[in-house]
């Protein structure tokens, strides 16, 4: 009986059975009942029964926490693939050209990436610990419109697990209204790798958020922010932001380059003001 039950549980790991939540719960329950029956037949349950019982309990909790539909799994995969592609672009140091540099060391670089197009790279140092930036950029994402004038609104449409969200973002007009309002639907994910936090995203389709009247639906390519403590100064954070955007519509390249470069510089300026006005951090990245 126990062997057959384990086969049932193992079968639920196959793709065509993965979403059969009832089957998985039935398998875990059956394992627990069988172990209890065997334990009652002995004066003292054997060590291996106790061990497997503990593991089956953990398995049940894990199945409950990680159950996702095929569509949710696709969103998770899309976010993770975007993160890998964006990090691959950032780690390639060749071909970057200066677009803008400030006296405080903030700088924007750019280059053209095959199959992606022109991307922009912001590099800044912020005099706040990494946990504070994570709190503002991830946990308080929907409040960005309060401090970033280039953003009218960010709304989380769906949360998937602990790392992935679907968002709708409404951008303000730019370049003296030469660039009209744009909106974006993105899948975003946040991961921590050692002392580094990576926040990534890319355009996606979400049926419950169709295109809005009077607003052009733009698309983000693979984009990410990388946060890590500044070497030798852990109370400061190095922030690198890779931006890849197709604004859609007819716009001269000179206008696009100016808008995207300035958007990144504005972001750094307003982020610092936000953090300085409320430096206390409760987040843990």
UniProtKB/TrEMBL annotation:
Pathway membership: Steroid metabolism; cholesterol metabolism
GO biological process: cholesterol metabolic process; glucocorticoid metabolic process; intracellular cholesterol transport; positive regulation of bile acid biosynthetic process; steroid biosynthetic process
UniProt entry keywords in alphabetical sequence: Lipid transport, Lipid-binding, Mitochondrion, Steroidogenesis, Transit peptide, Transport
Entry GO CC: mitochondrion
InterPro entries assigned to the protein according to its UniProt record, in alphabetical order: StAR, StAR-like, START-like_dom_sf, START_lipid-bd_dom
Domain START: 67-280
Transmembrane intervals: none
Domain of life of the organism encoding this protein: Eukaryota
Gene Ontology MF terms: cholesterol binding; cholesterol transfer activity
Principal location: mitochondrion
General function of this protein: Plays a key role in steroid hormone synthesis by enhancing the metabolism of cholesterol into pregnenolone. Mediates the transfer of cholesterol from the outer mitochondrial membrane to the inner mitochondrial membrane where it is cleaved to pregnenolone.
Designated name of the protein: Steroidogenic acute regulatory protein, mitochondrial
